[in-house]
Amino acid sequence: MSVVDRAAAEGVSFIVPVYNGERRLGEVLEAILAQYDGRPFEVIAVDDGSSDGSLALLRRHAADGRVRLLSGSGRGAAAAINVGVAAAAHPIVCQVDQDVVLQPGWMRRLAAALAEPGVGAVQGWYETPSAGSPWARAMGLDLELRYSSIAGDVLDHVCSGNSAYRAEALRAIGSFDESLGYGYDNDVSYRLGAAGWRLRFCREARSVHHWRSDLLGYLRQQYGVGYGRLDLVAKHPNRVGGDAVSGLRMILHAPLMLAVLAAGAAAGLTAISGGSWQPGLLFAGALLAALAGDRFLAALAAARRLGHGGALIFVPAHLLRDVAWALALAAWGWRRFTGGARHPATSMARSLCGRDTRLDDADLHVPPRRREDFVLLVPARDEAANLPGVLAELRERWPGVDVLVIDDASRDGTAQVLAALGVRCLRLREHLGVGGAVRAGLRWARRHGYATVVRVDGDGQHPATEIADLLAPILAGRADAVQGWRRKGAAGYSAGIAAGVARALVGRLTGGWSGRGVSDPTSGFWAFGPAAVRVLADHHPSGYPEPELLLFLRRNRLRVEFVPVAMRRRAAGRTSLTVVRAAWASWRLLLALIVVPLRAAVARPAR
Question: Which residues are paired to 376 by β-bridges?
Fold first, then answer.
């Protein structure tokens, strides 16, 4: 098949990550649907927890079959795109942002460029809207100016939101890095290039990017861009000088503006103390004048190349941008100094959702399974020695039942063991704790239509033969969640002294609300029915969750039963339950048992 024939025949999956994008979303989707040219075609929208009208709009499009609606994990754009990539049915993946309106012929042109052998990604040209605020024009014209400086059609960075990828290329490199906020598209481009894929620029494929229009939104976005760039450089030190789209000239503005602010602050402090402040102020003024002069020259270049006299907005807008970048540099440096973890929200901040925006099975177009169909979730961290035996036992006792291992950023050979066993695995890039791992597994189960879930720890303590006893109350309709409690005096089980003290400490607190002795409050052997899965997929307690989970289920009026089960000694390794962790769990339980009800009582209106 010729390149032309291949370009015309290959199917296309559009992926649109959505988070509070109601304002432009309808226009964006209509422009995508207008790209249809007869080839296999689908549009996947991944809602990542919108609290505006985005979800209602997406549901309307999903109801008429034009859009396939999926639920994101709430971890940001990169994770939402990965959900779409995993679900994409076609070899070409077009990724379009919720504020980007495609122009006619966009898909056809990018598909033609992507049909060339060895090309893994192609991006189009962002046009600046004819109407918009000065801040939106500053962002749009600046990007168009940088595009105009690119010679030829070869790139080392494909900007997401206006791009097409080979699905096989993305999957081969592990798709997008979900720990990154701004900069995840740079990262995936660098990894595609390192893997031998070529990246292309298609000027003829045009789209209109509706940038943030208010000053505060502009500054927040620029702060995020600066912060994300630093996380990107930390991962790819050889890219400290930038790439074809964002070069060294632009990147130097951040440290130079930080020097301006530091010199100005030093001059002020010197003046207060009675010292000679003039040299510091002169240095700051000279650097500021140099930065302003550079932006004035850029404005002249934009006016000449793009024919847009409004580019003079570059000078004030980009100096403010430089201040945001300098603050981002200072905040990032402090985080690194204090050992803080990288997280997408530190650069691509999300507002808090104001209401429940969970998707149900009808939204996801996943046929709901029967109540008796269940999935086995196995959270695991550093369990390479135990998992082969655990999984072999589960397969032998429950053949044909789906098993999902959630690898909580293990540091040992867990990932290699799972790959060798060929088991379905969800690998977390950051250590979330057992609660976060279970929540991720519950979201996977919900997305795949499972209403019943059994959690089995990866340390080998939970016998597969006991699972039927946990499921019985749920299948009978008596309970929404069932916890397996260790039978007292059970043969073959012996806890260490520290673990025993820890269990007793947490058990005494937990037993206060249950009205009965809590012999094993730390047990991770659980079965969850439909009501519990729906709630816990979004709100499962994090960290060390079992005691808090009991309280959470009670406060949500879910029916909990406890079943005595046999348990074994951990096969290998050490338990994560220590006296220190138990003390921390006890403190959090005290807050939940005392402070939260007290706050609710104070907030309750008087009759």
Answer: 403, 454
At 351 the pLDDT is 43
Q: Token pair for residue 202?
A: 């298609």
Chain position carrying tokens 């370009």: 7
Among candidates 111, 104, 124, 116, which has minimal Cα distance to 9? 111
pLDDT of residue 98: 94
Unique residue bearing structure tokens 């039927």: 468
Q: What distance separates the 2 farthest-apart alpha carbons in the chain?
A: 84
User: What's the half-sphere exposure (Cβ side, CA atoms, 13 Å) at 153?
Assistant: 16
* Strand-pair category, 162-166 with 100-102: unpaired
Pairing of strands 481-486, 68-71: unpaired
Dihedral over Cα of 471, 477, 480, 483: its sign: negative
* 3-state DSSP of 362-393: HHHCCCCCCCCCEEEEEEECCCCCCHHHHHHH
- Distance, in Å, from the CA atom of 366 to the CA atom of 350, rounded to the nearest integer, reads 28
Query: Which tokens belong to 337?
Result: 């100094």
What whole-number distance in Å separates Cα of residue 560 and Cα of residue 528? 9
Please say whether the beta carbons of 15 and 85 come within 8 A. Answer: yes
Torsion angles phi and psi, residue 229, rounded to 5: -60, -40
| Ranges in the chain, pLDDT < 50 | 351-366, 490-499, 501-507, 509-518, 577, 579, 582, 584, 586-587, 589-607
Q: How far is CA 387 from the centre of its chain?
A: 27
CA 288-291-297 angle, to 5 degrees, is 140
Q: Cα dist. 181→72, 216, 552 in Å?
A: 15, 19, 31
pLDDT of residue 502: 45
C-alpha separations of 324 from 253, 328, 555 in Å: 11, 6, 43
Up-side HSE of residue 511: CA atoms within 13 Å toward CB? 11
**Beta bridge mates, 15:** 44, 95
For 461-475, give the DSSP string: -S-GGGHHHHHHHHH
- Stated as kind and residue range, the H or E segment containing 223 is helix 215-235
Percent helix, strand and coil across the chain, each to the nearest 5: 50, 15, 35
Question: Would you tell me how many other CB atoms lie within 10 Å of the CB of residue 204?
Answer: 14
The residue behind tokens 């994101």 is: 72
Q: Closest Cα to residue 166, out of 90, 106, 84, 97?
A: 90
CA distance 600 to 369: 38
One-letter amino acid identity for 462?
H
Distance CA(501)–CA(503), nearest Å, equals: 6
Cβ atoms within 10 A of the Cβ of 293, count?
Answer: 11
Element (H, E) at 565: strand 560-565
> Three-class SS string for 484-519?
EEECCCCCCCCCCHHHHHHHHHHHHHHHHHHCCCCC
C-alpha dihedral sign at 475, 478, 482, 488: negative
Q: Judging by beta carbons within 10 Å of its beta carbon (0-12, 13-18, 19+), is residue 354 exposed, middle or buried?
A: exposed
